[in-house]
Amino acid sequence: MPHSSTAPRRGRPGYDRQTLLTVCVDVFNRHGYEATSMGMLAQHLGISKSAIYHHVESKEAILEQALDDALDALEASLDGVMADFAGPGEQVEAAVRGTLRVLVEKMPEVTLLLRLRGNSAVELAAMERRRAITRRLGEMIAAAQEAGAVRGDITPRNLARLALGMINSIVDWYRPESDSPGHKSVTEMVDAVTRVVLGGLRG
Amino acid sequence: MPHSSTAPRRGRPGYDRQTLLTVCVDVFNRHGYEATSMGMLAQHLGISKSAIYHHVESKEAILEQALDDALDALEASLDGVMADFAGPGEQVEAAVRGTLRVLVEKMPEVTLLLRLRGNSAVELAAMERRRAITRRLGEMIAAAQEAGAVRGDITPRNLARLALGMINSIVDWYRPESDSPGHKSVTEMVDAVTRVVLGGLRG
């Protein structure tokens, strides 16, 4: 197995906890969480398994921390939207925009979240928090439907699922650090995707 | 590990090849392809590993067959759209509708396709076919932009990715066989999702 090109090979065992978590999440995303062993993580990090255990108690603790990071940020974004915007239509637009921003900022952690299969209590708890986020967006959409700002011919829950489907898909193709032609700045991408999502919601 | 509730326990080793493949794809989707061993497949099927090898030569051959099923159907749908519809706007709408129908008909195989990480030549080849499908939809969208039927403020490639993000997300929540309240018939769902996707594309 080749060493990861994303694992900085600086002075081992000089990882801080956050850098170690970042590398581990990257390995999870490339090989799958279940297919990743602590031995594989050690190999990618270039340190011993016991050195990993100095930072974290288990593979599952790494997963849980990464999922918490993603979910905390997604929930905080919705909290901010509800505090900052009064109009239902404005709330929906701000929620779409805020969720896209979190996806860019926490892309590896959100990618991990989106691929969960529910094979453990930790995964099931994260999936329940994710469903609660979908429900909150659905409630915003329901209010916007009543205000006439969002199409009324589809249930708010399914509109929330479809909007999040489009939003979440950016983790599969958008790379904020890429300087290849055709890649846009974060703000341009967030604006563009928000327009398309809102176009779909407004009908 | 509990036996799968989806594995029909009828007279072993009485599986036909298609039923065996279906059960294996289901196990892949629940546990992850890489985390699934031939031993796990045998356990879920309730037959021996050697009985599996009677039908298929390897775990990867099962993956390849499932991916081919999904990709063949997606490509055939686009071929049909190009043969049956002349107007660019009509083509895009028919492509969205046709892709949704394939997703419902081949949901387990498409789910497997959507979760690939590119860890083998088989996976990389399937991902390249998937990208070619996205490019074909992008070309239809480009033609529809020129005809004024689709918004022109976002690249056709990114509109294709966003549309497919919304379309593909149905595998996470739509269950055609479910009779729980709120689940709609396939035709109703396909119509509703098509309206939302087209709303986003038209702006």
TrEMBL record, chains A, B:
SUPFAM superfamilies: Homeodomain-like, Tetracyclin repressor-like, C-terminal domain
KW Transcription (keyword) present: yes
This protein's record includes keyword Methyltransferase: no
Residue ranges annotated for the HTH tetR-type domain, each copy included: 14-74
Pfam families referenced in this protein's UniProt entry, alphabetically: TetR_C_24, TetR_N
UniProt keyword annotations, A-Z: DNA-binding, Transcription, Transcription regulation
GO molecular function: DNA-binding transcription factor activity; transcription cis-regulatory region binding
PROSITE patterns: HTH_TETR_2 (PS50977)
Chain residues forming the annotated DNA-binding region: 37-56
Protein name, entry field: AcrR family transcriptional regulator
